[in-house]
Amino acid sequence: MATAPVSTVIGRKSPWLPPAKFDFYAMDCHRVTGADKLARTLAEEVLRAGTAVDGTERSPMRNAEARITLGVTAARAGDPEQALARGERALEAERRSVPSPRMLGRELAVELRRRYGAEPAVREHLARLPALDATAEQGPQRTPGSTPR
């Protein structure tokens, strides 16, 4: 049974914005405003829409941001292990654009530091972030033989 995009369920069907993009942008808005339940629901929808049946990611950047959103909401809900797992998975994504994941990664880092800064796993994760920033400064990651977009 197919499910309707969340954008139609919440009554915001837009003639100008595809449902997948609406869900993506709404996810960000709800995360930033602290509406974690809606942000989590939309992040799950973004991941569902951005992943093919065989597990191939159709929208790796959107999926990475959805995972960071799930990490932020998990941190706020008191689950640092899930927050770290989601953040690590998001950072593994092949990036075509660097600023957005870095910005969101910092948002997750703030939540983790503020709530769980004394935990060793959190400190280890936070210690790796500057190295990731340095790698990101080198530009988008490409696989050998790929062409820039």
UniProtKB/TrEMBL annotation:
Region of interest (Disordered), residue spans: 127-149
Q: Where is the composition biased (Polar residues)?
A: 138-149
Protein name, as recorded: Tetratricopeptide repeat protein
